[in-house]
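User: Can you help me understand a structure? I only have the sequence.
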Amino acid sequence: MKLTIAIAALAGIATAANAGVTINEILGNGPGNDSEFIELYNTTGASVDLTGWSIELWESDIDNPDYGSADAGAPYALSGSIAAGGYYTIANAQAQAFMAFTANITLGNNSIENSSYTVILRDDLGNRIESLFMTDSMTDVANDAGAAIVADSTVGPDGTFLPAGAYRIGDGNAAWDILAFSQTPPNATPGSANIPAPGALALLGLGGLATARRRR
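Assistant: Let's start by predicting it. Here is the structure, written out as tokens:
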């Protein structure tokens, strides 16, 4: 895989970084049968009860007639708690086997969209805690059930492709980088600490650069 520079625009990163429980890492697009997971991270010093919380995935390809519809299996109802400084993962069986971890919730295969999509973390009162927009097009639109939103973070496009996934450069930090399309060996770290990217740019303000464009 050849690495080149790609755009990763971010918006509202202060809100995202300050969220007590935050979307920390996601992988949804890879070769063959996808390994898929979403990781949450508790930035606080106390355990957080996730009972009644949910993760939503919304189709965000503006040219798709299904724009604004929920992706397969979503929303995902969360349960249990996330420890102080701890992780909570939802993942398909392939990801768990390949990366040797046990998810809190197991997804079906092909649950995460392979074109632009919006991830929303919602609490037990229905409040939108955080949103992440993964996109393969500058014209697609982040949304909440079809209502356009400005996502807390936007990652992509990776060249003209959807990023395979993304991770915060250091758990809970505002800056994001793009995960490799091929996870052989895996550079994703579900259920454990994200590795800061050496020499990574601090993506501050409303936009910045991130690395990793895949070549197929």
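Now, to help you interpret it: The first strand starts at residue 5 and ends at 7. Helices lie at 13-18, 93-99. Let me know which part you'd like to focus on.
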